[in-house]
Automatic annotation (TrEMBL):
<keyword id="KW-0560">Oxidoreductase</keyword>
<dbReference type="InterPro" id="IPR016162">
    <property type="entry name" value="Ald_DH_N"/>
</dbReference>
<dbReference type="InterPro" id="IPR029510">
    <property type="entry name" value="Ald_DH_CS_GLU"/>
</dbReference>
<dbReference type="InterPro" id="IPR012394">
    <property type="entry name" value="Aldehyde_DH_NAD(P)"/>
</dbReference>
<feature type="active site">
    <location>
        <position position="214"/>
    </location>
</feature>
<dbReference type="InterPro" id="IPR016163">
    <property type="entry name" value="Ald_DH_C"/>
</dbReference>
<feature type="domain" description="Aldehyde dehydrogenase">
    <location>
        <begin position="8"/>
        <end position="437"/>
    </location>
</feature>
<dbReference type="GO" id="GO:0004029">
    <property type="term" value="F:aldehyde dehydrogenase (NAD+) activity"/>
</dbReference>
<dbReference type="InterPro" id="IPR015590">
    <property type="entry name" value="Aldehyde_DH_dom"/>
</dbReference>
<dbReference type="GO" id="GO:0005737">
    <property type="term" value="C:cytoplasm"/>
</dbReference>
<protein>
    <recommendedName>
        <fullName>Aldehyde dehydrogenase</fullName>
    </recommendedName>
</protein>
<feature type="active site">
    <location>
        <position position="248"/>
    </location>
</feature>
<dbReference type="InterPro" id="IPR016160">
    <property type="entry name" value="Ald_DH_CS_CYS"/>
</dbReference>
<dbReference type="Pfam" id="PF00171">
    <property type="entry name" value="Aldedh"/>
</dbReference>
<comment type="similarity">
    <text>Belongs to the aldehyde dehydrogenase family.</text>
</comment>
<dbReference type="InterPro" id="IPR016161">
    <property type="entry name" value="Ald_DH/histidinol_DH"/>
</dbReference>
<keyword id="KW-0520">NAD</keyword>
Length: 462
C-alpha cells in the first residue's frame, strides 16, 4: 500500500530524530542493526522466496543465489570487518606542523535514502542497507512498486526488526518518490534507469546531497574462445537469461566474428536446453517478464530480427523464451539500424553481432556510453588485455558473467552513463561514512607563532 504523501515528511524527520539522538553511532549499535537485518532475512526466507516468485516467477534456487545469499554474504562480510573499519587511525602530520597529532575518524552521514528497482527487489534494497547501518546512519527505504509482494513484505518486516526506527520504509511509485526527493537526505542511493537517475540527481542538488547512482545500459560480451565453446556458451546464457534477462549486468549483446556465428548459435541453443530444458516455460527455474508493458516492449524488439533460437512468447503468462537473434549491421548505439541494438534490452533477447576482429569490437563498444559491465570470452591473454586497456566499463569479467556482483570485497558500480559511485563491502562503508581528520596541536609549545605576522626575513614555509 502506498504511503500517503502527507505522511512522508514525518517519516524522514523521525529518521533524523533517531540519528540525532546518537543511537546509531556506537560500534555495538551498528553491529546490532546488522544482526537485526540478518535476522529479518534468515527468519523469513520462505516469505522472501514466495514474494519473489509472485513478483517475478523467481524460483527458490535463483532467489537464494541472486538475492538472499548475496545480501547475507554482504552482511556477514560487513560484520566481520566492522571493528577494523571503524577503528580510528593515526593520520600523518607534516614536520612543519609538529608538534601535532592527527586521527582519521569515520563518522556517519545521517539519514540515507535507498530507492530500488523491481528486478532484484530485495537485493538492491537491502545490500546497500548493510553498508548504511555499518556506517552508523539511519535509513529510509523505497522499494519498487513494480515488485509489490516484496515491497509489502519488507514494509511489514522492517518495523518488527527495527522497532527503534533506525530503518523506515516508504512504499509507492512516482508520486511518493517525488515527495521523498523533496526532503533533505545526507546521501541517496538510487538503482534504476538513467532517465530517473537524472531526476534523482536534480532533486538531490537542491539540498547538495551526494548521490550514488547505479544505472544500466548495454553491457557487451566478446567471444572468440573456440576451445571452450560449450562452457562459454553455458556461462553466457546463464548470465543473460537468469531472471529472464532482467538484470542490469546481463550481457546485452555478443560480438564475435562472422565465421564463429553458426557454431556459437548452436552452442547457445544447447546451453539453453541444458539449463532450462527443451520447454523453458515449464521450468520452475525460468522467470517471467515483470509486467505487460515490459512484455510488449520486448516482443516489439523482436520485429524485423532474425530469430535463430527461441522467440516464442505468451502474453497471458508474460513468458518470453530465451531468444537469440542475429542482428544486421555492425552499429550498436544511437545510430543503430534496429532498436534491439539501440536500446537497453533488459529481457531474454540476446543479439549476436558480427564484427571482423577484436579491434572492431572495441570500436563498437567505444562508440557509445560506457557500459556497466564488459565480458570477454577469449583464451588469448593479449585479447583480454586489449579489452581491459582500450575500453571503459563499470567492471570487466573474463570467461564469465554476473559473478562480480557476488564478490563482496570488490567495488560495484558504473562509470559515465552507467553510474556514479560504487558500493559493496568496504566501498559501501566508505560511501556512507565521512572520513573526518581530527588534529590536535597542543598550546603548550607555541610553534604556530612562526606562521603569524609580522613576518620577518624569509618567513616560515608551511
Ligand atoms: P526505474 O528508473 O524506472 O525505477 C527505479 C525506481 O525509481 C523505482 O523505485 C521507481 O519507483 C522510482 N521512479 C520511477 N520513476 C520515477 C520518477 N519519475 N520520479 C521519481 N522516482 C521514480 O528503473 P526500473 O525499471 O525499476 O529498473 C530498470 C533499470 O534499472 C534498468 O535501466 C537497469 O539497467 C537498471 N538497473 C541498474 C542496476 C545497477 O546496479 N546498476 C541494477 C538493477 C537495475
Amino acid at each position: 500500500m502506498p504511503t500517503t504523501t502527507g505522511a512522508i515528511p514525518a517519516v524522514v524527520s523521525d529518521a533524523r530524530k533517531v540519528f540525532d539522538s546518537g543511537a546509531t553511532r556506537s560500534r555495538a549499535a551498528r553491529a546490532a542493526a546488522l544482526r537485526a537485518l540478518r535476522a529479518m532475512i534468515t527468519e523469513n526466507q520462505p516469505a522472501f522466496e514466495a514474494a519473489l516468485w509472485s513478483d517475478l516467477h523467481k524460483g527458490a534456487g535463483e532467489a537464494q543465489l541472486t538475492e538472499i545469499s548475496v545480501v547475507l554474504a554482504e552482511i556477514n562480510h560487513t560484520l566481520r570487518h566492522l571493528r577494523r573499519w571503524t577503528r580510528p587511525r593515526r593520520g600523518p602530520v607534516p614536520m612543519a606542523l609538529w608538534p601535532a597529532r592527527a586521527r582519521l575518524v569515520s563518522e556517519p552521514l545521517g539519514v540515507v535514502l535507498v530507492i530500488a528497482p523491481w528486478n532484484y527487489p530485495m537485493q538492491l534494497l537491502l545490500d546497500p542497507l548493510a553498508g548504511i547501518l555499518a556506517a552508523g546512519n539511519t535509513a529510509v527505504l523505497k522499494p519498487s512498486e513494480l515488485a509489490p509482494e516484496t515491497s509489502a513484505l519488507i514494509t511489514r518486516l522492517v518495523p518488527a526488526y527495527f522497532p527503534d526506527g533506525i530503518v523506515r520504509v516508504v512504499e509507492g511509485g512516482v508520486e511518493e518518490t517525488t515527495e521523498l526527493l523533496a526532503q533533505r537526505f545526507d546521501h541517496i542511493v538510487f538503482t534504476g534507469s538513467g532517465a530517473v537517475g537524472r531526476i534523482v540527481m536534480r532533486a538531490a542538488a537542491e539540498h547538495l546531497t551526494p548521490v550514488t547512482l547505479e544505472l544500466g545500459g548495454k553491457s557487451p560480451a566478446w567471444f572468440d574462445d573456440d576451445a571452450h565453446l560449450d562452457q562459454a556458451a553455458r556461462r553466457l546464457v546463464w548470465a543473460k537469461f537468469t531472471n529472464a534477462g532482467q538484470t542490469c549486468v546481463a550481457p546485452d549483446y555478443v560480438l564475435t566474428t562472422p565465421d564463429r556465428i553458426p557454431a556459437l548459435v548452436e552452442a547457445l541453443r544447447r546451453a539453453i536446453e541444458d539449463l532450462w530444458g527443451s520447454d523453458p516455460r515449464a521450468s520452475g527455474d525460468y522467470g517471467r517478464i515483470v509486467n505487460e508493458r515490459q512484455f510488449d516492449r520486448l516482443v516489439s524488439l523482436l520485429d524485423g530480427t532474425d530469430v535463430v533460437v527461441g522467440g516464442d512468447h505468451d502474453r497471458a503468462e508474460r513468458y518470453i523464451a530465451p531468444t537469440v537473434v542475429v542482428a544486421e549491421g555492425r552499429a550498436v548505439g544511437p545510430e543503430a539500424a534496429h532498436p534491439v541494438l539501440r536500446e537497453e534490452i533488459f529481457g531474454p533477447i540476446l543479439p549476436v553481432v558480427a564484427v571482423e576482429h577484436a579491434d572492431q569490437a572495441i570500436d563498437v563498444i567505444n562508440n557509445w556510453d560506457k557500459p556497466l559491465a564488459l565480458y570477454v570470452f577469449s583464451s588469448s591473454a593479449r585479447t583480454r588485455r586489449l579489452f581491459e586497456e582500450r575500453t571503459s566499463s563499470g567492471a570487466v569479467v573474463h570467461d564469465a558473467g554476473l559473478i562480480h556482483v557476488a564478490a563482496t570485497g570488490l567495488p560495484f558500480g558504473g562509470v559515465g552513463a552507467s553510474g556514479i559511485g560504487a558500493y559493496h563491502g568496504t566501498y559501501s562503508w566508505r560511501t556512507f561514512s565521512h572520513l573526518k581528520p581530527v588534529l590536535r596541536k597542543p598550546l603548550a609549545l607555541d610553534t604556530l607563532r612562526l606562521a603569524q605576522p609580522p613576518f620577518t626575513g624569509l618567513g616560515p614555509r608551511l
